[in-house]
């Protein structure tokens, strides 16, 4: 099971509290994790990735194992610690302004 932490506004949309768990078949990547998350919580479709291009939205960041994975390829395997559920996959809402 992949354990995911969502920002408060996405937890509200998905109507969940705390850490969310999803099951991913095969290689665990950002794409497969987000696909599983959106399949389990359809209300999240389009909130983290563009509907058409499937690219990450500008003010959403992805972290795992203390690394910012936001600019990594969505098909690059996530760290083993995330794949086995030891570490969390974090979805973070970025803040802009000065």
Give a structural overview:
With 98 residues, the chain is of the alpha+beta class. It has a single domain, classed as Beta-grasp domain (Ubiquitin-like (UB roll), Roll). The chain has 3 helices and 5 strands, in the order βαβαββαβ. It has helices at residues 8-14, 30-40, 80-83; strands at 2-5, 20-22, 60-64, 67-68, 89-93. The model has no long low-confidence stretch (mean pLDDT 94).
The CATH topology is given as: Ubiquitin-like (UB roll)
What sort of overall outline do the alpha carbons produce when their principal axes are compared?
globular
Radius of gyration: 13 Å
Low-confidence stretches: none
CATH architecture: Roll
Listing every helix as H and every strand as E from the N terminus to the C terminus, the arrangement reads EHEHEEHE
- Say which CATH homologous superfamily is assigned: Beta-grasp domain
Discrete helix count: 3
The tally of strands reads: 5
Q: How many separate domains make up the residues?
A: 1
The average pLDDT score comes to: 94
Spatially, the strands of the biggest sheet line up as 2-1-5-3-4
Strand content: 15-25%
Helix content: 10-25%
Euclidean distance between termini CA atoms:
38 Å
Structural class: alpha+beta
CATH class: Alpha Beta
Describe the sheet with the most strands: 5 strands, mixed
């Amino acid at each position: 099971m992949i354990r995911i932490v969502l920002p408060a506004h996405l937890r509200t949309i998905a109507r969940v509290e705390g850490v969310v768990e999803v099951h991913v078949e095969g290689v665990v990547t950002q794409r497969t994790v987000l696909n599983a998350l959106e399949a389990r919580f359809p209300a999240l479709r389009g909130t983290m990735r563009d509907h058409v291009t499937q690219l990450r939205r500008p003010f959403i960041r992805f972290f795992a194992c203390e690394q910012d994975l936001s600019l990594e390829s969505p098909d690059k395997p996530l760290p083993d610690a995330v794949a086995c559920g030891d570490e969390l996959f974090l979805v973070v809402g970025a803040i802009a302004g000065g």
